Amino acid sequence: MGPFRPWARNPWFESVAQARRRAEKRLPEPVFKALVAGSERGLTPSDNENAFGEIGFAPHVADLPRERRLGVRVMGQNLALPVLISPTGVQAVHPEGEVAVARAAAARGTAMCLSSFASRPIEEVVGANPVTFFQTSWTGSREHVLAGLDRARAAGAAGLILTLNWSFSEGRDWGSPRVPLRLDLATAVRFAPAVITRPAWLLDWVRAGRLPTLTVPNLAEPGRPVPTFFEAYGTWKNTPPPSWDDVGWLRERWDGPFMIKGITRVDDALRAVDHGATAISVSNHGGNNLDTERAAVRSLPAVADAVGDQVEVLMDGGVRRGSDVVKALALGARAVMIGRAPLWGLAANGQAGVENVLDVLRGGIDSALTGLGVASVADLSPADLVVPPGFRERR
């Protein structure tokens, strides 16, 4: 992978917060708001981030390791760092979308998790990164779900992720971003004031020779037009939520690594194990599920204590720094997944911006391990942290 020289990257940003600021300056306002959206009052997204700040470190000051090992094995794959790209829908903040993100993940030796609501086909994404895990939501009939699995298998997906916690409350106190159903001439005229103030973003698409897409090709049915995001979203909303029997049925039809994403309770974690999960991700869907859910990192310790010796436990939600990653691992996670951060990097500087975000996190992980006096991410434990009383319950 070569020497770690972030200063050689131009334009380089030194934090995820800076990537977010650059994304906000580059993207039309409705597009940027869609990346930071949280349901209702947005308390859970804030708690996802702020909870990490409540945890302290307990560092050593001598005999610090000269070299640190950041590699982990997740879903049967050896990864260079304990950070995966989380599945997020329609990454059309840049013309290359999910393909650019997949290439960046491959360049940094980690996995791409591809949403079934993505804007680019799974075949292209697997071609960009063979370590791609396909994520599905329970949308439409069993036959429709199974067709998606068959397509993912044929494309060479390395594993399957089933997301179970997506209620996606549509009421937001700060006002939901105006995202069009489809892009046509009337829509272009209506959104022109927001887009014309961001000429660099528009120029990227002009150079690519196409308009931003809101279609979701991985949910297309044979012989029918590729649905738009909101058409597919409508199908999902009208699909009865899956039962644990449905989860078991799905697991029987996928013979590879199988993650259930969206676990926050111990009883659900135990059921996930009973129904064949090889991994789970402790997640509140980035705060886009039920507002006032606890931060994912608050739910992590109990889940990891209950099932960490039976399945791989990951976590996603609010990770913005390498030190956040280290805290999650010390509390029982094998790795974390990041969703908004790589999208900000993508919007700010394409594939290089996503690589930049991963480099920032890698550098932060390495620095935290150095300060703690821990040689490997596998050696992290709660003893490396100062966790305040009531942390797990506080919101």
Automatic annotation (TrEMBL):
Its cofactor is FMN. Transmembrane segments: none annotated. PROSITE patterns: FMN_HYDROXY_ACID_DH_2. The lineage of its organism: Bacteria, Bacillati, Actinomycetota, Actinomycetes, Kineosporiales. It holds the Pfam family FMN_dh. It comes from the Bacteria. InterPro entries: Aldolase_TIM (IPR013785), Alpha-hydoxy_acid_DH_FMN (IPR012133), FMN-dep_DH (IPR000262), FMN_HAD (IPR037396), MftD (IPR023989). The keyword Cell wall biogenesis/degradation does not apply. Signal peptide: none annotated. The keyword Transcription regulation does not apply. Belongs to the FMN-dependent alpha-hydroxy acid dehydrogenase family. This is Mycofactocin biosynthesis FMN-dependent deaminase MftD. Gene3D superfamilies: Aldolase class I. Keywords: Flavoprotein, FMN, Oxidoreductase. Residues 8-390 form the FMN hydroxy acid dehydrogenase domain.
